[in-house]
């Protein structure tokens, strides 16, 4: 499995959830791993700084949840005037960021993202294992 497999997972999530306009995976340190930002409103969005901000956002959300003793962070969703940004942890190694328009079905995204997160975790673990071989 490789970067192509990650992009396929990202594209599949975009196609399965109404309102998703773009997706990316970043390492927990903010380095871009893979992105699917080639459609519609997300054309021209630079994935490198987006990856860094997504990782930082997840870190801040985890810290916030820890300070308030609210349990384990599941996701952080930002609602804006023209859409949404959701970030999900991929274990402790990466972050999935999802961009959506005003019509994003956040409940469906949360449901479908769980399978995607699991598959992304497997792909990243396989890549790490292959790199160590």
Structural description of this entry:
By secondary structure, the chain is of the alpha+beta class. It has a single domain (3-127), classed as Dynein light chain 2a, cytoplasmic (Beta-Lactamase, 2-Layer Sandwich). It is 47% helix and 25% strand. It contains 3 helices and 5 strands; from the N terminus they run αββαβββα. It has helices spanning 3-16, 47-67, 106-132; strands at residues 20-27, 32-36, 76-80, 83-90, 94-100. The protein has a 5-stranded antiparallel β-sheet, with helices on both faces. β1 and β2 (32-36) form a beta hairpin. α1 (3-16) runs antiparallel to α3.
Write the layout of secondary structure elements.
Elements: H1 3-16, E1 20-27, E2 32-36, H2 47-67, E3 76-80, E4 83-90, E5 94-100, H3 106-132
Antiparallel strand pairs: 1-2, 1-5, 3-4, 4-5
